[in-house]
Amino acid sequence: MLSVAIVGPGLVGGALIEQLVAYSKSPRFSSLPIAIVGLINSKKMAISTSFASADLDSWKDNVLGSSAVPADLTSFVNQLSALPAPVALVDCTSSDSVAEQYPEWLSKGLHIVTPNKKGFSNDYGLFKKIQQLSSGSEGPSVYHEATVGAGLPVLSTLNDLVRTGDKIIKIEGIFSGTLSYLFNNFSVPGAASSFSECVSVAKASGYTEPDPRDDLNGMDVARKVTILGRVAGLDIGTDTLPVENIVPEALRSVATADEFMSRLPEFDGHFKELNEQALASGSVLRYVGMVDGQGNQSGVKLARYALDHPFASLKGSDNIIAFTTERFPNPLIIQGAGAGAAVTAFGIFSDIIKIAERFGTRSTAAKI
């Protein structure tokens, strides 16, 4: 039995709970049992080895409702570490302070699964410490597939390439579902919508952050490039990567998202000119990140791609990642939905299953 506890069960965590409850009712559960034993949000927490499926179906009211105790993450972790079965702690937050606690969790023998990019893209020293504490075959493990590409097998593919000794030449991709959607609709032959109209539709459809500048500044893509580069063995970080911020400079400091959206049409001419230049050369615009495995050209930018390039034919909000290696001179390409609660939860769940297969049959969690 692998016990699972979730920190920050919001949209993604809720989708994960739904998938785990469905799994508990499937024939697969008997051969590889996985059970939710704890939930904690910013206000309440609950730990039990006997949550009923009916309670988890309505976890907001039945588990984290009036009967739950005040949230205390330290106490939560300590109680989990005392359980006899192996425990996978799932961090569904985007918190820096929570990610900084990963080394402590690992030292208590807790496995970690997370879509939180902060522990792997912030301070390089934290990344190395997490890596070192989870590197043993018998000790606790860390899986973070969902930090890049949600449920797409991006990091697992990269890990396999690295572990088998392949030489990474370049990793290039469209890593943002938001920016994929924007440029797949704005920069295509025959498209009539202005850039601001595309951003407005994307925001109304829920593709962007509440403030679209948080997507357009490129930092989310920079974090993903940093993670890929570090997994590939490079010492890179968001503080050293060149990142092209496509938010017009005059709008970077406006006070609200509403003001930003109201003034964005003033800059439609700028984006129209860039697009027309690209189309005139037989190309389209795509916002990409690149890991240069051979030099110092890693970065994030708005770039042109010929109409016959795989990046140019992308649809909707899909991600696409191309690995160019010594063994794959013609790139190995992964493409599909790179955002959304269900697919992100799938990526987390897949990592949980990996831990269950390795440790779930043991009576106690492995300690360092």
TrEMBL record:
- State the UniProt keywords alphabetically: Amino-acid biosynthesis, Methionine biosynthesis, NADP, Oxidoreductase, Threonine biosynthesis
Q: In which pathway does it act?
A: Amino-acid biosynthesis; L-threonine biosynthesis; L-threonine from L-aspartate: step 3/5; Amino-acid biosynthesis; L-methionine biosynthesis via de novo pathway; L-homoserine from L-aspartate: step 3/3
Q: Does the keyword Membrane apply?
A: no
The record places domain Homoserine dehydrogenase catalytic at 153-353
Q: Where are the active-site residues found?
A: 224
Does the entry feature the keyword Aminoacyl-tRNA synthetase, yes or no?
no
Superkingdom of origin: Eukaryota
- Annotated residues that bind L-homoserine are located at 209
Q: Where on this chain does NADP(+) bind?
A: 8-13
Cofactor(s) recorded for this entry are: a metal cation
Catalytic reactions on record: L-homoserine + NADP(+) = L-aspartate 4-semialdehyde + NADPH + H(+)
Q: What is its EC number?
A: 1.1.1.3
PROSITE patterns xrefs = HOMOSER_DHGENASE (PS01042)
Q: Which residues bind NADPH?
A: 93, 117
Q: Where is the Aspartate/homoserine dehydrogenase NAD-binding domain?
A: 8-134
GO molecular function annotation: homoserine dehydrogenase activity; NADP binding
GO BP annotations listed: homoserine biosynthetic process; methionine biosynthetic process; threonine biosynthetic process
PANTHER family for the chain:
HOMOSERINE DEHYDROGENASE, PTHR43070
Instruction: Describe its function.
Output: Catalyzes the conversion of L-aspartate-beta-semialdehyde (L-Asa) to L-homoserine (L-Hse), the third step in the biosynthesis of amino acids that derive from aspartate (the aspartate family of amino acids), including methioinine and threonine, the latter of which is a precursor to isoleucine; production of homoserine leads to a branch-point in the pathway as it can either be O-phosphorylated for processing to threonine, or O-acylated for processing to methionine.
Which family is this sequence assigned to? Belongs to the homoserine dehydrogenase family.
What's this protein's name? Homoserine dehydrogenase
Which organism encodes this protein? Coemansia interrupta
